[in-house]
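Hey, I was hoping to borrow your eyes for a little while. There's a protein on my desk that I can't quite get my head around. The fold is given in discrete form, as structure tokens running alongside the sequence. I'd be grateful if you could look everything over and explain what you see. Here's the protein in full, and shout if anything looks odd to you:
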Amino acid sequence: MADRDLEARHLETLDRDLSRFSALEVATAYIGRPLVGPGISFIFILLAALAATLFLDKSSNGPVVAIAAAFGAYMALNIGANDVANNMGPAVGANALTMGGAIVIAAIFESAGALIAGGDVVTTISKGIIAPESIGAPDIFLWAMMAALLSSALWVNLATWIGAPVSTTHSVVGGVMGAGIAAAGFASVDWSMMGSIAASWVVSPALGGLVAAGFLWFIKARIIYQPDKIRAARRWVPVLVGIMAGTFAAYLALKGLKHLFDITLGMSLMLGAALGVAVWLVMIPVIRRQSRGLENRNKSLKVLFGIPLVVSAALLSFAHGANDVANAVGPLAAIVQAAQGGDVADQIDIPIWVMLIGAFGISFGLFLFGPKLIRMVGSQITKLNPMRAYCVALSAAITVIVASWLGLPVSSTHIAVGAIFGVGFFREWDTARRLRKAQIEDPDRPRIAPEERSRRKLVRRSHVLTIAAAWIVTVPAAATLSAAIFLGLRLITD
């Protein structure tokens, strides 16, 4: 009997010890989980620096290029964490894609866009903001590009941390401008281009919001508010999908495939029109088949917009990878050319190993840190469903084409977020309009108090103010940081 009691006490002691170990493991996992992303990112940055030492020709500036490669990898990670949310956020917010599915699709198409169609010369990033010849010695230009790369990465990292989707293009532009001013004075900056970029702070979100609101109004008027919604959808959804297909064909030709082929704006529009008509004809029987048995309510319409929304998110990611990879590797490519003794005033081409750093960095950044901004863009600014998200995606493509036709420099980030604002504010206006109409038709209807109307706002004002403030300060903040880093680097090296 005593032996049994002793064995029972031993088992109780063992259970308590195991419980302590289990609690310790849970606590360790809880504490260590936030460190996984930074740890993997640090390893990727080290591998990027190692790749630079392996692929670069033997040069006295080899260590400098390795450091620049690390900065480029850091910038690519931040682009993936911040910028890609604009493409995937609407689809995730509308529940057309899960978070995991969005990350996989974005990683594949961002990398494909960067590697297939992203090998353009980096004119704007490396030479369009400042004149390299005005800086003088190649080593000064090298340190200026280094400062621009690090400052823009730090700013985008800070913006991601506070939950503000900012333009990585404007961050790099600000970084290059600040380093150029610190190196060669204000005369080295192309102020006309800077004025155009400042104008895009207003033009980009305004155009995106107006186009998205216009398409949402059309969908509501022609489909949602019709007595027979399914019949209206059979007529208009193929047209809308055809418009989307044609627009994205022109968008990809203009913003992505132009790196592979010589395509003018007119040629891209003709290509888009032809493909749009073809897709419209194909989608007529498809939508008719999909709509069989659907109930005559708004929820049924979401089914018809799901697949086009997923395809649009993938195409936006491809075009984004083709264009914005230059934000990460443009200054790095300029540094590589300067380090190898090249003339910084010549055309700057991107080596394949530099492109790989940009492509994989964007994918890693999206996978490790992207969900935070994807959730914010997709669901925290305003509530999205597939129809509203469709309007956002289509607006992004149309606005870029219109801006290219008008010769206006625009930001894809500002367009996408502006389109979400446009959808949300249109919903507020439309809701208020319908309430006023109902009040006129039924004067005895109870009125909604002003406090209640304020509480029912469909766009979160706090996000509007935070994002707008981040957009305004991006260029000056990145420029100030870049100038400080450049002067610090010069002080250390001299």
In short: The mean pLDDT is 79.
